[in-house]
Amino acid sequence: DLVTQRASDFSGKEPHFKLLTVNEISVNMLVFNMVNPALAKKEVRQAINYSIDKEYILSKVIEGQYVAVAKGGVVPFSISTPELHYPFDTTLYYRYDPKKARELMAKAGYKDGKGFPTITLVVNREGGIHEKVTSFVATQLRENLGINVEISLKSISEAISSMEAGDGDIFRFGRIADYYSPYAILKIFSSSLLDTAGKKFFPNSARYTNPVYDSLLDRAITTTDVQERYSLYARAEKALMNDPPCVPLWYDVGIWLINGSVRDFMPPKVRLFFLGEVYKKPLTPTQKKPPHEM
Question: Which residues pair with 170 in a beta bridge?
Fold first, then answer.
């Protein structure tokens, strides 16, 4: 709306403002607390994945607000570069399939949701869209699987404390990579992050353990061939999504509004900023241009 209302500020050779976007290495998801005996069953977690219409969430609930449906696993497609390809696997995507979801629930012993406990979904109230999304998710779980969901709205700090303490059954969680590697996302489900002594579980708030997954991650981080490392990461992700500790919902698209005088700024995919080539203009005719503009 801002761009539409003030179109002249964003147009021309020397616009007052620039609107930049970038596909971030970031994923929003729902994380299961595996301590809950019902959620410890793989079929239940698979059923919940199939019962949520992620494409509807994107198009209608948050109205396409610069996000992309998570049509793979937890690692966004934006991790790939022209030099280094990550084998992004759309077969990991749990397409909306209520019929299959109900079959899996019945297989787990919860036909039509009978005997399934009420679950608490913890969500931070900041941002606005998360409350709308989780309300929609709660409706879908009730209508498709017969699962009753109580939503617990908290501040971000309170939500993180709940995740650490295991105070809840499903947690709304977002992860943005802090460096350029699939491991920056995948590591949050490594059993090496389980602090059983201190009883604090973050970021592996799922309390997730998977020996196959752990083994593949360990092999990947000790492999010197980078492309082979990426292949091992992809195999690990496949093992993860076959036994899903989460429901990937969407990958984020970062939006940057910058002053038109800022030049050579490239929005980062991760939370690292490289500003060595960034400078401000306008330049007067008597000023020397930076070397990279000559």
Answer: 32, 121
Residue 228: what pLDDT? 95
CA–CA separation, 59 and 55 (whole Å): 6
* Residue 25: closest CA among 102, 81, 107, 99: 81
Q: 167: which 2 tokens?
A: 């105070």
Q: Are 255 and 19 a contacting pair, CB within 8 Å? A: yes
In angstroms, rounded to a whole number, what is the distance separating the alpha carbons of residues 172 and 251?
14
Q: What is the pLDDT of residues 227-280, one digit of tens each?
A: 999 999 999 999 999 999 999 999 998 888 888 889 889 888 997 888 888 988
Which ranges of the chain would DSSP assign to H, the alpha helix?
2-5, 42-50, 54-56, 98-107, 129-145, 156-165, 183-186, 211-221, 226-242
One-letter amino acid of 153 = L
* CA distance linking residue 178 with residue 185, whole number of Å: 9
Dihedral angle computed from the Cα positions of residues 205, 207, 211 and 212, in that order, rounded to the nearest 10 degrees? -40
Cβ atoms of 252 and 229 within 8 Å: the answer is: no
For residue 223, pLDDT beyond 50? yes
